[in-house]
Amino acid sequence: FQFNLMVVGQSGLGKTTLINTLFASQLASSSGRTEAGEPITKTPDIKCVSHVVEENGVRLKLNIIDTPGYGDQVNNEKCWDPITKYIKDQHSQYLRKELTAQREKHLPDTRVHCVLFFIQPTGHGLKPIDIVVLKKLTEIANVVPVIAKSDSLTLAERQAFKETVQMEFAHHRLKLYPLDSADYDEDEQYQNAQIKQFIPFAVVGSDKNVVVKGKTVRGRKTRWGVVNVEDETHCEFPYLRNFLICSHLQDLIETTAHVHYEAFRSKQLLA
Amino acid sequence: FQFNLMVVGQSGLGKTTLINTLFASQLASSSGRTEAGEPITKTPDIKCVSHVVEENGVRLKLNIIDTPGYGDQVNNEKCWDPITKYIKDQHSQYLRKELTAQREKHLPDTRVHCVLFFIQPTGHGLKPIDIVVLKKLTEIANVVPVIAKSDSLTLAERQAFKETVQMEFAHHRLKLYPLDSADYDEDEQYQNAQIKQFIPFAVVGSDKNVVVKGKTVRGRKTRWGVVNVEDETHCEFPYLRNFLICSHLQDLIETTAHVHYEAFRSKQLLA
Ligand SMILES: Nc1nc2c(ncn2[C@@H]2O[C@H](COP(=O)(O)OP(=O)(O)O)[C@@H](O)[C@H]2O)c(=O)[nH]1
Ligand SMILES: Nc1nc2c(ncn2[C@@H]2O[C@H](COP(=O)(O)OP(=O)(O)O)[C@@H](O)[C@H]2O)c(=O)[nH]1
């Protein structure tokens, strides 16, 4: 199994921490940090880091693709170009191998199976840059948006914010994952409809342990309480993890091949 | 007493809420909200809203100057121009009245006495746009930076973030308020040195009441605890309020006249 997961979002939204929380280990040290006096003047390159993790007894080769510097400049025009280019390049490389490879050979798959898109929990709605980038990314890959650092929202604010953002998704007709598709059977369609109510998942990440009721869990300890990322009444991290690593892992990989790659391939072969 | 307070920061950092918390009343409804499908395509105009508040038995005419749209675009080049223009225009208008008014008349003072600059609690450091804008604003007005929504930081993260940001302030030699100045006596210099250790104040704002130990306070109620904005072990809001409204109100008004306006005036009269 090879799963290629790209993370997109402004620096400081907890992307690195969330990846570590998802895969329960120190996979990455935080990129995007600069020394004082070293302003981020150009977008650093896209980085791909490989790991082997074991989830549910299954060994998974995990590639985390980080997109440092996204949205961090004064002028963010075209800051999405390196990102869309990377996604298309993987399709392009796969197509080239497909056209030249022997029939039975298993081709290494570097295509981006899922883009985790981090939304800042402003309490108002999507930012203009989010809308531009989501439009571009949803055309070429499976995009799963999450509300970053959702512990900074009260339950009421979270609900209101999520509804606003869901309305904006609908208004811009963004094709977020999972897509409505006849390829899914009735059970799957029902399950997807249920999941869609949650999206964007309101997540909290932590690479620190806290003790809650005698149990050690990932959490954040503040002066007024302890956020337990494993607690579904605190945040939706458990739903995201189950969605990404259990229930929809296979489908994310398959739809990338059968939907996004196919669309790319047809375009290329017609051109 | 007329106090002109400008707030600068990306939308969604709790500026409106903090103003309401500072002045314990519903002064403003949140600006910067757009309907779904109405992307913020141009920077809305600077808005000035007047209020009369009573603080410590003193009636204060308070002008809150909002700078909607700052830093919210895809391309934020020059998004600070309307802000610096507004500040300079007030100096310019005051100079014009000063040159034409009769000696004894009290001139209405619309000069910006304090700019509250909101820093996003990313956990990393200042954003490139923050550094550019802080450099420009500190040249022409009293700037007091705050760490917005500081309840999204653990105590350890808050301390580390504050130290990073303080180092960046020093590295860029930003002239933040209060300035080191021979005009202050020894007691005031000592007090300022103490205050400077806190800046940027890590604030939390709330326009909702919560009950803590039988007392009604402004706070945020989450599933894992209640943030009490009045509690100095939760955040530094009480220090900011005391600083802005009690201990340094007079000095903010005076230094604007004697330092920033004087600098502006000399430049104009020499030119
Ligand atoms: N409040 C809150 N803080 C978080 C969360 N996840 C990470 N952080 C903190 O936010 C800061 C930046 O996190 P990081 O993972 O480096 O963000 P990145 O720049 O997007 O990769 C660190 O201080 C983290 O401890 C979260 O879910 N909630
Ligand atoms: N976590 C947290 N949320 C806050 C704080 N202050 C305001 N908010 C919430 O953040 C959202 C945006 O606040 P608002 O004052 O409108 O921000 P503005 O756009 O900067 O004026 C609202 O949902 C507020 O309730 C705070 O100190 N901490």
Automatic annotation (TrEMBL), chains A, B:
Domain Septin-type G: 1-271
Subcellular location: Bud neck
One GO CC annotation: microtubule cytoskeleton
Gene Ontology MF: a single term: GTP binding
Gene Ontology annotations of biological process type: cytoskeleton-dependent cytokinesis; intracellular protein localization; mitotic cytokinesis; septin ring assembly; spore membrane bending pathway
Keyword set, alphabetical order: Cell cycle, Cell division, GTP-binding, Nucleotide-binding
Organism domain of life: Eukaryota
Family label: Belongs to the TRAFAC class TrmE-Era-EngA-EngB-Septin-like GTPase superfamily. Septin GTPase family.
Protein's UniProt name: Cell division control protein 10
The organism of origin for this protein: Yarrowia lipolytica (strain CLIB 122 / E 150)
